[in-house]
Amino acid sequence: MINLIQKDKLPHHVAIIMDGNGRWAKEQNKDRLYGHQHGVASVKDIVEGCAEIGIKYLTLYAFSTENWNRPQDEINGLMELLVSTIRSEIEQLNENNIRFDMIGDIKSLPTICIKELGEAKEITAKNTGMTLVLALSYSAKWELIEATKQIAEKVQSGELKSDDINDDIIKQHLSTHHIPDPELMIRTSGEHRISNFLLYQLAYAELYFTSTHWPDFRKENLYEALLNYQNRERRFGKISEQLNPA
Ligand code: IPE
Ligand code: IPE
Ligand code: MG
Q1: What are phi and psi of 55, to 5 degrees?
Q2: CA–CA gap between residue 118 and residue 114 (Å, rounded)
Q3: Would you list the domain boundaries of the chain?
């Protein structure tokens, strides 16, 4: 299937809501953490697949602001998994020239996670291949509230005039200010919602939903999503004839 993908029509940025670890585990009478652990194999495969094919930015939604409301055991397990995964994978990421980054309210994470994430970012900072962004303790509403506060302070101090606030100014104050908006957003496991992910940045993204649970999602599923994306007409408000003049 990879042969059908047009390399010159790839999205620059793919964002993924990695959903369904819990349901995947339940189907096998295992606990939820077992599902999360198996989700790591999908992360590795998809990071590798995206980098190989030439995607420039991959953002993975790994833990939302709302996920803090889960049972404490599951939260602890996820945080431990985050630390152990970064530790075991960082060398490989570095060898593959991948730059590691994160978005979200990172300071709300356990100290050990903050340290591990910071080191991973530092070690890979000079890499020039794909940028892998983990969204952790992230929600779009949190991000927009933070951006609004920063902009309001600049207006108050006279650094910025309210009339000058535009799309660019808002973008500059989002945690993704250094990253282009995703052209493709994938959500696994059958839910048709955004769950507070990148609301501003997804304004014109193509949305792709699959019933496959995240722990079963592999490169072939990614290729399917990319092909589906390439067969869509992105009109941005125009009409088809304007995009394809006779
Ligand atoms: C996604 O899988 C992982 C996280 C949100 C951390 P879920 O844990 O949401 O799995 P389901 O949706 O309950 O099956
Ligand atoms: C969204 O999945 C968050 C992540 C994948 C990290 P959830 O499973 O938390 O979302 P809802 O609760 O189904 O909306
Ligand atoms: Mg879920």
Answers
A1: -70, 135
A2: 6
A3: 11-229
Nearest CA to ligand 2 atom 8: 19
Catalytic residue, chosen from 3, 21, 31, 67, is 67
Q: Residue 228 Cα, ligand 3 centroid: separation in angstroms?
A: 23
Is 228 an active-site residue? no
Q: Please name the fold of domain 11-229.
A: Undecaprenyl pyrophosphate synthetase (3.40.1180)
Counted residue by residue, the chain has a size of 246
Can you list the positions of beta strands (E) in 86-216? Answer: 99-103, 131-138, 184-187, 206-209
Q: What is the mean pLDDT of each run of 10 residues along the chain (246 residues)?
A: 96 99 98 98 98 98 98 98 98 98 98 98 98 99 98 98 98 98 98 98 98 99 98 98 94
Structure tokens at 32: 């939820």
Neighbours of ion ligand 3 (CB under 5 A): 19
CA distance readout (Å), 26 to 21, 34, 224? 9, 9, 26
CB atoms within 10 A of CB 156: 9
Closest ligand 2 atom number to CA of residue 135: 6
Q: Whose atoms come closest to the Cα of 36: which ligand?
A: 1
Number of H helices and E strands in the chain, helices first, is 8, 6
Question: For this structure, is 29 an active site residue?
Answer: no
**pTM of whole model > 0.90?**
yes
